[in-house]
Amino acid sequence: MIIAIDGPAASGKGTLARKLAARFGLPHLDTGLLYRATARALLDADQPLDNAAAAVAAARGLALTEFEEQRLRGREMGEAASVVAAIPAVRETLVEAQRRFARRIGGAVLDGRDIGTVICPEADAKIFVTASPQMRAQRRALELARSGEDVSFNEVLADILRRDERDSSRAVAPLRAAPDAALLDTTALDIAGAFTAALALVEAARARLHATD
Ligand code: CDP
Ligand code: CDP
């Protein structure tokens, strides 16, 4: 069973993907980390983020197991990741590794922006997670404060709106719900409530899958 979770920044997709993976005993890939790690490698090498050749080389050089997540989670890295993620050749370089991860025996859970549309259009369950920009900014600001980054609500909201716009308007694999994805608005849901709703959607997809066995 392949579960595809997409949505904008701080909608809660990563939390849901982790919890669904634990529930079904499936491996989980946070695909945002691939773009964050590509951007990190460029910044570490003093390369501009829009240098396509250097970005492709950085993406090729990624080892999926070697993420230093702490260095990739900060505010600056979300923004940098979305700049390199708009380079078509970078996306092309990262497609195969994501598909291999998804197609392992038994299945997988992947979360990102283009899992249901580009990486796994054949996924058994697709959920597009949303929440109001204000709620997402509130969640992200809290998260950043916990990790020691003191950023105001308004700055985080501006970051999120800019990133939404860039991710939605790029030419290749823009942030978009697949036509067959279920929409899950988590604005008024806490983590437990969002998980209950997501679980019901996945169970329904599983029932359909077994019905066609
Ligand atoms: O992966 P994504 O950026 O979409 O979001 P996340 O990392 O799952 O969630 C962002 C923050 O919001 C985390 O600190 C979550 O604990 C929190 N969250 C929440 O408060 N309520 C939800 N329904 C989902 C997430
Ligand atoms: O957790 P949050 O949603 O803030 O960020 P993320 O999922 O780690 O993604 C960071 C950036 O990587 C996004 O703003 C996208 O530009 C890009 N990304 C993408 O283009 N495609 C994906 N499948 C995952 C992330």
From TrEMBL:
Reactions catalysed according to its record: CMP + ATP = CDP + ADP; dCMP + ATP = dCDP + ADP
For this record, the Gene Ontology CC terms, alphabetical, are: cytoplasm
Main location, first listed in the record: cytoplasm
Protein location: Cytoplasm
Alphabetically ordered keywords of this record: ATP-binding, Cytoplasm, Kinase, Nucleotide-binding, Transferase
Q: Does GTP-binding count among this protein's keywords? A: no
Tell me the Gene Ontology biological-process terms attached to this UniProt entry: pyrimidine nucleotide metabolic process
Q: What is its EC number?
A: 2.7.4.25
One MF term in the entry's GO annotations:
dCMP kinase activity
Q: Which Gene3D superfamilies does the record associate with it?
A: P-loop containing nucleotide triphosphate hydrolases (3.40.50.300)
Pfam families in the record, alphabetically? Cytidylate_kin
Name the domain of life: Bacteria
Q: Where does ATP bind?
A: G7, P8, A9, A10, S11, G12, K13, G14, T15
Q: Which NCBIfam families match?
A: cmk (TIGR00017)
Q: Which HAMAP family match?
A: Cytidyl_kinase_type1 (MF_00238)
Q: Which protein, by its recorded name, is this?
A: Cytidylate kinase
Which species is the source of this protein? Lichenifustis flavocetrariae
